[in-house]
From TrEMBL:
Gene source species: Malonomonas rubra DSM 5091
Family: Belongs to the type-II 3-dehydroquinase family.
The keyword Iron is assigned to this record: no
PANTHER family named among the record's database cross-references: CATABOLIC 3-DEHYDROQUINASE (PTHR21272:SF3)
EC class (word): lyase
Protein's UniProt name: 3-dehydroquinate dehydratase
């Protein structure tokens, strides 16, 4: 089984970007930990872009590539991107939204997610641990389907 781990803008700066909010681990550290944790259960493909269009294109490609589901940290696009929401909805792949910080305890504009209504669930506020929780939740969802 193949899953897509998709990361949005500025997550390439993890480890140095506001470490008091996002932690000191790099995105590569997080991806490697998830790949190692789930290597016996699935293949994890991963992609990060600061470009909304590239993320939309990768969501479309996930369906064509035979991915069974998506774990996405849309980052700032969570709160602004109808395009990402529509891309997720259009490919009809189960998707779990993940955030390092608790978006519901942050600034008001960060508390709304365009992605949540088309996701099977959302995990936020557990730092890098949330990525593993999101993959596990997606695998559990796929097993029940």
């Amino acid at each position: 089984m193949k899953l897509l781990l998709l990361n949005g803008p500025n997550l390439n700066l993890l480890g140095t970007r506001e470490p008091d909010i996002y932690g000191r681990e790099t995105l590569d550290d997080i991806i490697q930990a998830v790949v190692n944790q789930f290597s016996d259960h699935c293949v994890i493909e991963h992609f990060q872009s600061n470009s909304e269009g590239a993320l939309v294109d990768r969501i479309h490609q996930a369906k064509l590539d035979g991915c069974a589901g998506i774990v996405i940290n849309p980052a700032a696009y969570t709160h602004t991107s109808v395009a990402l929401r529509d891309a997720i909805s259009s490919v009809d792949l189960p998707t779990v939204e993940v955030h390092l910080s608790n978006i519901h305890s942050r600034e008001e504009f960060r508390q709304h997610s365009f992605i949540a209504p088309v996701a099977v669930g959302q995990i936020s506020g557990f730092g890098s641990l949330g990525y593993g929780l999101a993959v596990q939740a997606l695998l559990n969802h796929l097993q029940r389907a």
